[in-house]
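Sharing a chain and its predicted structure for anyone who wants a worked example. Both blocks are below, sequence first, C-alpha cells second.
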Amino acid sequence: MPISPARVAAFDILLRVDQQDAFASELLHSSRHHGLSSTDHRLATELTMGVLRWRSLLDQAIRENSSLKLDKLDPPVLTSLRLAAYQLMFLDRVPQPAAIFESVELVKRARKRSAAAFANALLRRLARSPSQAPCEAVLENSTTVSELARLTAHPEWLVARWVGNFGWDAAKKICAYDQQVPGVSLAIREPAAVDRFERQGIKLVPGFLVTNSRRVIAGDLNKLRRAEQPPIFIQDEGSQLVALLVGQGSQILDCCAAPGGKARLVADRNPRARIVATELHPHRARLLRKLVPAPNLHVIVADARALPTQAGFDRVLADVACSGTGTLARNPEIKWRLKAEDLAGFHRRQLEILRSVMPQVRPGGRLVYSTCSLEKEENEQVVETALDGERSFRVLDCREQLDQLHAEGELMGRDLDSLHRGPYLQTIPGTHPCDGFFAAILERTLPGRQ
C-alpha cells in the first residue's frame, strides 16, 4: 500500500524545516506541492503545522515510550515518529493503524529500514496508552511558568519573558493563541474583489480591526491563489495596521520591503507618490516586483544599512527582520530555533538599520519602525537607544494616529486603548485577533523646533 501524498509531503517538509532552517508555510505553498489535491493539501498542512506547534509535547510522549534517547535517533526516524504521535494524540478522525503503518513506511522510504521494527513497536506502545493532548480546562488551571510552557509546547525561557513583560493572563493568551490554527485575512481595498472571491466559492466576512480587511471563513483559497492575477495578498491585520501608520506623502521609502504586503498597501493609499522599495536579496526583490506591480513603486536591491537613495523622504517604513515571536501561530518552527542570546544580535542589526535610515527622512517627515516581535530588545530598546542624544527626532503618540485612522474610516473603533503601550503600537496575540506587531512613529523635527 503506497504512503498517502499528504504524509509524504508533510514528512519531506518537516525534514527540510529541521535540517535547512526553512519555513513550513513557504514550503507548503511552493510549486513542488501544487499537485496535491485540496484534501491532501489540507491534511499535509494539518500534519506539518501540528507537529511543529506541539513538538516538545510529542517528543515527551515519544521519550516515555522509547528505549533510546531522542538525540540518538536519525532525523528521518524522529520525524516519522513525531508525525505518528501527532495523529495518535490529536487527530481522532485518523485511524490508528493507518497512522502507525504509514509512519513506519516513511522510515523505510528514508532508507532507515533497520529502524522500522523499533518505530513500529514504539508507536504501538504509544497507541495503547497515548498521552492526552492538553484540554482548555487544564491550560486554564496552570499556575506556574514551567507548567504553562510544557502544556502549550513553548520554551520555558520565552514564556517567562512574556509573563514578565505582559503579565500572567496575557502570557497565557499568547501561548494559547500560538497553538491554534490562525485565521486567514486578506487586504482588500476594491469592493469588486469581494464579489470575485465569492463567485469562486470563497466566503469572506469583515475583519476585526482594519476596515478594508476580510477574513476567509470558507472555500479553498489555494486554488484561486495559484491562478490569481494580480496575486492574492494574505496579510494579517496587525501587518495591515502597521502599513496604515505610514500615512501619506509624495516621496516614500520602504527600506526592508519584501515580500511586499505593506508596500502594496502603502502604494494603494498613495497612488501619486514616488515609492522606493529596497530589498537586500535579489531573488526577494524580484518576488516583490512580481507581487506588487504598482507603476509608482520602484524596486532597488540594496542593504538598508547603506542605502544608495538621496535623503528627502516624507514617509519612511523600516519593517526590520526580527525574531518573529509575534508570529508563532503561523511560524511555530521559530520557537524551536530561537535562543535567548539571539536577541542581542537582532538588536544590533535593527539598531544599525534604524540609525542608517533616520537621515533619509526630511524635516517634518515621519519614520515608522516596526517588527513582528514581542521582545523589548527588538522594540522599545532599539528606538530608545537610537534616540538617545538625538535631538532631531521625537516619538509621536501612536494613539493619536490610531484615532486619526478611525476618523478616516480606515480603522474600526474597537478598544483602541489596548493597541498601544505608552506611545508605541503593540498588538498581542490572543489579546488581539492577530499576530504580535510593534511600531514606533518617529518625526524629524523642523529646524529651530528641537
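Comments welcome. The chain has 20 helices and twelve strands.
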